[in-house]
Amino acid sequence: MHVHPLSAAVHQLQKGNPWLLLLFILNQFCGGFFLNQHYNPAFISLQMMKHAWDNYKRYAWGLNELKPISKQGHSSNLFGNIQGATIVDALDTLYIMEMKDEFKEAKEWVERNLDFNVNAEISVFEVNIRFVGGLLSAYYLSGEEIFRKKAVELGEKLLPAFNTPTGIPWALLNIKSGIGRNWPWASGGSSILAEFGTLHLEFIHLSHLSENPIFAEKVMNIRKVLNRLDKPEGLYPNYLNPSSGQWGQHHVSIGGLGDSFYEYLLKAWLMSDKTDEEGKKMYYDAVQAIETHLIRKSSGGLTYIAEWKGGLLEHKMGHLTCFAGGMFALGADGAPADKTGHHIELGAEIARTCHESYDRTSMKLGPEAFRFDGGVEAIATRQNEKYYILRPEVIETYMYMWRFTHDPKYRQWGWEAVEALEQYCRVDGGYSGIRDVYSNHQSHDDVQQSFFLSETLKYLYLLFSEDDLLPFEHWVFNTEAHPLPVLRGDDEKKEEEEK
Ligand code: DMJ
Questions:
Q1: From the CA of 200, how far away is ligand 1's center (Å)?
Q2: DSSP category for residue 361
């Protein structure tokens, strides 16, 4: 579906969306200059981020997330009664987009109100990637001590999660009592690979900033446990029991339950200034096994990453899995045996497949999961897989592919997503997820996820900005898109200072 510029302009006028209207008009007079060639990052900050932030501020200030239709706060049990998820998740985006007043008010809220001395059972993974990651990035970008202090304080609260027989942490932790447990639905009382495997970057930085080695020791021990275990076909199952140290069900996924474990192996190596050889080996060995056992091509020529259940493939790919295109591209440079070009190509093929999953819907936004069986390709067939909750992974992959190839199609695809978000997700009170992206009329889920501000909008902004904004030689992004600096050895630091 192509939105005709005139009807799009009228639509934006009806919605009281003057910036976009102005852009459409300018675009018409300037032969497509604004929208087709020089996609403007200012549109993402001035129009989209501002709308998301202002409405959160107006209707849900200090609460975790915004319900943009009912115009009130949304609380999720992931954070227990820790408050302010959107504020902490958005801090670095505000800083990067130079939204100075908003950053200042967010910082003041953190100083006055962010409180971890609460009786709350939280998800260790979610609190780590959003709160610890958000605070660390805010500290590194702004140099404001309060963020460092809060990050270390929260890191200390998370430590009791590692009190298990193996040191593999619990998924859930009461940060007052220090009592942990796992999700009741997880196979055989297991912890989840993508959860305990996505602490590494933040915990290495916590040790660095606090000069307390405990954080790094905890995550290095996770590696040790994993490296002692046999892996079926070289693959990592999603479930690991923290008491017995044995795998649960042999389900393998590069999407939900597995995804960011692989991402953090690669990024741990990059963040160590390429000195963490163990992380590097684990990443490239895992990618080799993924290629052999999970990556397939559809009869229509689309490359996809299937899920593996005890040796059988389920030909389904989650929206979450789409981050892997960017990961393959980011890892291409270090790929062994002259495989750099191959990894970039793999990234490009995943980007294309994920773009198809968007393009084959009526709203041009991708479903939660899409299938390659029963005569369909890159289409959701089950009603409960047709929703879109403002997720970033496809745009994240476009951003990485753009940086590595400068192929203009990635900016074009990113702009298609901008148009679709504006048309279907933007409402008076912010941005909302959609219940069915194949439907012709919008049914909103009434949640503005905090990752929309921390990831989706940040990756869009970076996609349309110059490459020297947060260059990859100096920064790695945690799985919630919070940039963390590469940690250089003393010699390298000196060399850089001399330059
Ligand atoms: C985010 O919290 C992170 O990207 C996480 O790794 C996966 N899920 C959401 C976004 O979809």
A1: 16
A2: S
* Cα 65 to middle of ligand 1, angstroms: 15
30: Cβ contacts below 8 Å, ≥ 6 apart? none
User: Is residue 35 scored above 70 in pLDDT?
Assistant: no
Residue 159: count of CB within 10 angstroms of its CB: 16
Query: Both tokens of residue 424?
Result: 């279907």
Report the C-alpha gap between 254 and 239 in whole angstroms: 13
Among 16-20, 273-277, 348-352, the least confident range: 16-20
- Rounded-to-integer distance, Cα 196 and Cα 128, Å: 10
Say whether 338 sits in a helix, a strand or coil. Answer: coil
Tokens of 9: 């302009």
Given a contact cutoff of 8 angstroms between Cβ atoms, the answer to whether 136 and 484 are in contact is yes
Question: How much is the pTM?
Answer: 0.93
Q: Ligand 1: residues whose CB is within 6 Å? A: 129, 260, 320, 391-392, 451, 455, 479-480
- The C-alpha atoms of residue 486 and residue 499 are separated, in whole angstroms, by 18
Phi and psi dihedrals of 266, rounded to 5? -65, -45
Which tokens belong to 137? 């990035």
Does the domain at 43-488 match CATH 1.50.10.10? Answer given as yes
In sequence order, the 6+-apart residues with CB closer than 8 A to the CB of 410 are 351, 398, 399, 401, 402, 463
CA-nearest residue for atom 6, ligand 1, is: 479
